[in-house]
Specification:
single chain, alpha/beta, Rossmann fold, 9 strands
């Protein structure tokens, strides 16, 4: 589906029964909404899923070249435009890595719209890309040793209509005070981060300073957990949601 804004075209997909709890899926850096394909088939049995490409990434087109267009404030307004189009007022969130930074920003800007969140690969510190790549390789090696079958990456998970715009879309994280935003969160949330992901240190700090959050450490998992272990992340997501929804 697509909606046209003044200087943008937003691409999104919905799946499941509209009467089910609405769940927004926020993709990671360099990814598109296709990154959720390996988990959405099961999610749609329980939720009304809303996956979208942020402005300038995937199939969402940005025609506004100003700095403000590539910001978490703008992406939050874009998501609200999608939710307004769908007549949805409150949502659950699931995000990964850079997308978790975006989801935290959204939560602080729209505190009355978020019911709960699962933040995968969470960090509000400066990203250590080299350490993320090293941990990812180490996790895969460990999985191979244990005989854990690797998952194929979803087709189109990193294909963008405009590569330059997609790269520029990531600049939003550096323009937003994520520490202040995270301190405002007062709804139930879970952080899921792999034991081989350098983001785990920040994840632990985030949960330790919160009254509403909990941490799930994923064994033998590196950065990009949803893509690397969709089976494991889906299992823990559903288990936690059953608990908070009282099902």
């Amino acid at each position: 589906m697509e909606i046209e804004l003044d200087k943008a075209k937003l691409y999104f997909e919905v799946q499941g029964n509209p009467n089910n709890p609405p769940l927004v899926l926020w993709h990671g850096a360099g990814c598109t909404l296709r990154m959720w394909d390996l988990v959405v088939e099961e999610l749609k049995n329980f939720y009304f899923t809303i996956a979208f490409d942020v402005r300038g990434a995937g199939n969402s087109i940005n025609k506004d070249l100003s700095e403000d267009a590539y910001s978490f404030q703008q992406y939050s307004e874009d998501l609200n435009s999608i939710l307004d189009f769908l007549d949805i007022h409150k949502v659950h969130l699931w995000s990964m890595a850079w997308g978790t930074r975006a989801a935290i920003a959204y939560s602080s800007l729209n505190p009355n719209k978020v019911l709960s969140a699962v933040f995968s690969d969470a960090s509000i510190e400066i990203a250590d890309i080299d350490a993320q790549r090293l941990g990812y390789r180490e996790a895969l090696s460990k999985q191979d040793e244990l005989g854990i079958e690797r998952f194929n990456l979803p087709k189109g998970w990193n294909i963008h209509a405009d590569k330059d715009s997609a790269a520029r879309s990531l600049s939003a994280a550096a323009k937003f005070d994520l520490h202040e935003a995270f301190n405002q969160i007062d709804f139930p949330f879970m952080i899921m981060t792999g034991d081989h992901d350098p983001n785990l240190s920040s994840s632990k700090d985030m949960v330790s300073g919160s009254n509403t959050g909990e941490l799930k450490v994923l064994e033998n998992v590196g950065h990009g957990s949803v893509l690397q272990r969709p089976d494991l992340t889906l299992e823990y997501f559903l288990d936690w949601h059953k608990k908070i929804l009282g099902e």
